[in-house]
Specification:
By secondary structure, the protein is of the alpha+beta class. Helix content is 40%, strand content 16%. Strand 4 and strand 5 form a beta hairpin. The chain starts with 5 loop residues before the first strand and ends with a helix.
Amino acid sequence: MPHMPGTYFILNRVNSRRYVGSTNGSMRKRCLRHRSELRRGVPMNMLLRRDVLHFGPDAFCFFPIDVIEPTATHGRRIDLGALEIERVIQMQSYNEELGYNQEAGHVRTAAAIFREHERRQLGEYGSYCFLPWIDRWAPVNSNLLSSWLRGR
């Protein structure tokens, strides 16, 4: 990984799910931090955490997508948030069946909004609970998610 800003992705070699990220600093340092979190089993992203516990940290590979070289920008400022959103859409990593992204460019995905609503229902209101065999972090079915969004 280069010591430059840009976008990168993390690939789970076992199930092909992916995560797209960006950094204004060094991609190498950011990915080393991700690698450390994976090895300790504590990534902030709960979907990644679930899979690292199941497949192990060595199932994940890191790749640069866009390397932003300061000399190539000619003084222009690159909007990494917009670039990250573009890459998340291209790689479909917002879809929980294909990826891990719960937000891109500080914009939350529909599944992340659904999970937040679900968390509030479970915790604050105690309105419902999961059946014992339901994994809270299993991918949300996209058809179910789209029906929930239409009803809001």
